Amino acid sequence: MTMMEPLAAMTTETQPALFSVRDLRLSFPDMAHKPLFGAAPRIEVLKGISFDIPTGQITGIVGESGSGKSTAGRVLVRLLEPDAGEVLLDGRDIAHLGEEEITPLRRDLQMIFQDPMSSLNPRHTVGHIIATPMKRYGRGGTREDAAAALVKVGLPAEFVSRYPHQLSGGQRQRVGIARAIALEPRFILADEIVSGLDVSSQAQVLELLKTLAQDMGITVAFISHDLSVIRHLCDHVIVLDHGEIVEQGPVQAVFDHPQSEITRTLLAAIPRPELDDSWFD
Amino acid sequence: MADATALPRARGPRSLNLRLWLPAAWLSLLALAALLAPFIAPHDPLAQDLLMERLPPFFMAGSEPGYWLGTDSLGRDVLSRMIYGARVALFVALIAATITCLFGSTLGLLAGYYGGWWDRVISRLVEIWMAFPPVLFAVLLVAVMGTGLFSVIAAIALIDWTRFARVIRAETMVQARMDYVDSARIGGANRLTTLAGEILPNVLPSIVALLMLEMGIAVIVEAILSFVNLSISTDDPTWGSMIAEGRGAIHFAWWVLLFPLIALFLTVLSFSTLGEGLKQRFDPVLQ
Amino acid sequence: MTKHRHTLDVVDLTIEIPNGMRLLRDVSLNLEPGEVRALVGESGAGKSMIGKAVLGILPSALKITSGEILMEGHNLGSLSPRARRAAVAETAALIPQDPLTALNPVRKIGPQITDPLVRIRGWSASEARKRALDLLDRVHIRAPERVMNSYPHELSGGMRQRVLIAAAFAPSPRLIVADEPTTALDVTVQKQILRLIRELQRETGTSVLFVTHDMGVVAKISQKVTVLFAGKVMEDAPTRDIFTDPGHPYTRALIAATPSHADPNRSFSPVPDSLIADLHRQIAQDDSLYRGARP
Question: Sign of torsion, CA C139 C142 C146 C147?
């Protein structure tokens, strides 16, 4: 399973894949079991996974907690460096680039975080949060630029002078999206971005992400444990379990004919908003 | 639980925060007195007059006009000596605490954010340092370097930087795990920019609170060292030396001891209260 | 009077913060013996607050300014604080939201389950221990002895939530307040936990007040539903009716906003801003009437 080739559907896309990941391995030291002297044993989080992220599409990465889905995402945007394997971005291996080499690439590799309360610095205004990366990459960064980014995500321009804690959860998450798209990146990693939101803002935020990604031609990797959301949003899906890929393919195919036990379990576990007496059986 | 966040923030009496303004008022008064000491002190703090010894303060029988808080056993004016004493206290507080804070906080930030090798070296150093008994350490230092204001300042900085290093390291480690740090790196910030531009503003309130606390501690340490005659020359008035001198006469001239003690108490209390107040004031979430 | 037949009656409950702003607005609901009632709403709707008020654990800044809470017919407001605590401890238990912070990290699991049994029920230590082992077995924990001897951090999130469910059911309460007990869990673990709560609830005939924001969970676990918005009851109806024929536009909007993978063509849609604005306008009118009516 670990050496599974990408599906034919992916390689026959008109455009080549933005990311090609090959045999990715990553482990963390297990500090809970560290002996008094000597190195801690390592926990394998990713056990040699290979997948493609097709250009201009939304790819869902799904799995239970501990499946390694967030870790895999963080390798793509190089917040983490893998132990082994290749992460090809346009054919160039970025897996082991140093800080100086990766920084220029970061403009193209943006991320939206799960918890907007913790990912927006409470000491900075919304305007500062959006404008600072823009200045860094010479893409404007005035108050007006930040305001324009806010308007693009459906927030009022005067929010530039607000602090994150003065916004609601849904509004904060829009600020997170505004910051990411302000740099006009080619890729956005969205890590469980709606799991902390109320249902009313969930649908809004997902719709916004989908529209912006289409309009701006941004490739998106969408990490979630909720297959309902994946089905509505994504073109492709990768199912992870304990650091291995158990299934990947077009959303339609995976949902209609799930091949792995874990996919079936995940599908069956979602409580749908409809009466169903047999759900628990 | 989610509902708790939706609670409208309690709107405290924003007009006058006494916890902030009372200590600020006392410290400003003290600073003013210290700055203008030569102009406002009613008497020369060193002028002895054995005919005027142990005069009681103004509200007691037998007091002399002009000697508001009485005189000591050498006939020196207590109020004037306290005003000049404030100069020493505040000077030491300001300089010693600032040096301590800069040194300790920098090490704390580096250890907390960079981790690894930085953290191992700095944390070991702190542990070793804290194994020395601090008072003995101070006395030894002053004994080696000689008495004087700068020895006192050096002693405070050398002993107390560990307090900043420990607290700021822990606080930085908490902040370093927040998503906004990763988010800054995604936004192209290098590590130093992230530390200075993202983490520092979040740790700053704790640094300010600690700085204020340290100023109070510096005042006390200076008083202790003057009490045991290890601060500046015995002639110069300091609160510590006044307390030491007043000790012998406590039964018949209690004012010589009590007034500098009150000043010391109020000053230390003001510094720590002000620190807490400023910390809350700085916090956009608590405001 | 038929009220005493209910396990719980909340009558016209209003809760305010010191500046007079209402967080709950005349909320009424009841629970019959053996019934599961879902209390559903978005954050800020006041759903957890009702649970806290019932258990008498409201933050001290919040005041009940009118209304009554009756537990098995006893008006809690008429009791002394001491008697009230005793009555609540005797009747009710809580399954909290966050299984990590709800357990004391420095104590073993065992005493955390058995202590309340000894204190409230007056059982002997060995009786309490037997009961705890029995309950841990009933929540499908394979090695109850070992879990009793573990510390919370040695267990996974799902295991900790099982322990808390066992602890809540152990003293045989007649009422359980479940405060978003599965929000912090994965969907697969959520399903197991919901199944457990349902199983134990059916066996013991305990009434459950189930606080949640997820209409999917509501559909699976409850027989009755109270839909809240901004501290006001929008709709109170049997679960069957809520999903076949929702009476209130807000209820319809909540259901429509919940994603369902079963029918990919039924796109899920946000709660319309115009509806939210309308509801807020009505509540503002209510509030000004309320303020006007006060002396």
Answer: negative
